Amino acid sequence: MRQIPLSVDRDLRRVVHLALDEDLGFGDVTTQAIFQDKRLRGRLIAKADGVIAGLDAVRIGYEMLDRSVRVELMKQDGDTVQAGELLAVAEGRADILLTGERVVLNLVQHLSGIATETARAVAALKGSKTKVCDTRKTLPGLRLLQKYAVRCGGGQNHRMRLDDGVIIKDNHILAAGGVKEAVAMARAHAGHMVRIEVECETLHQVREAVEAGADVIMLDNQTPESARELRKEIPSSVVVELSGGMRPDTIAAFADCGADVISMGSLTHSVTALDMSFLLEGAEKR
Predict the structure, then answer these.
(1) Where do the H-state alpha helices sit in 190-276?
(2) Does residue 169 have an active-site annotation?
(3) CATH number of the domain at 123-269, out of 3.20.20.80, 3.40.190.10, 3.30.70.420, 3.20.20.70?
(4) pLDDT over 70 (residue 12)
(5) Is 199 a catalytic residue?
(6) Does the active-site annotation cover 285?
(7) From the CB of residue 255, how many other CB atoms can be counted at a distance below 10 Å?
(8) CA 73 to CA 23: how far, in whole Å?
(9) Which residue among the candidates 137, 159, 180, 228 is catalytic per the annotation?
(10) Architecture of the domain whose range is 9-119+272-280
(11) What is the pLDDT of residue 3?
């Protein structure tokens, strides 16, 4: 199991509670009509290979609906699984199991999809010093959980919030009148513990950022060839980030560009959920 130094229990409970409240309404009229206190076992099964994240949503969700439901998690967050593997078992009233099914699946599938995509990106850079990280392109209300899922896949986190650090982007540079001016303003305003990153697309911007004393330089929208050339202009003491259109199936070409980190918005804003199913034991499709 991968060690993931980020606690999300409180946030997971908040999201599960909101999701159940949104989905439940006055009750599940379908299951209430069909089941009357019948106790069954349900099995959560992976239908595709991937990496697990957010599995504790199964325990938390059923605990919120009915504390008598017994949940056993067969895997842990960060585990790699194959299609057909058993992820969790829940035993309790059939109507409760089915009422919570969709909320539980939605969260675990989504977060596991992020972990899986991250693991693909990390694997593509195997043997390189370059690390994979996320961005702030997250779904409202799910940022901490999505960034946790990135860690489950072996990635790292960029800024959690706007107050985590200074990133000077194109609009900041335009408003300030140039890279040097923007860095000087940020340096005067931020405390000595805050690092300053500058987004650059051209050689001129890179040289200005270096001269202004940027701590981190983001090379945006580059080809592997242009990234290698711009990297030569940046001192080794400055952290170099690559960003812009990066995907797991394309980043291998950037592995030897000398970057310290590659940031990928696609890990969280457009990921495909990891396919799973929840089946009651004894249930057969006809």
Answers:
(1) 203-212, 224-231, 266-269
(2) yes
(3) 3.20.20.70
(4) yes
(5) yes
(6) no
(7) 17
(8) 24
(9) 137
(10) Alpha-Beta Complex (3.90)
(11) 52
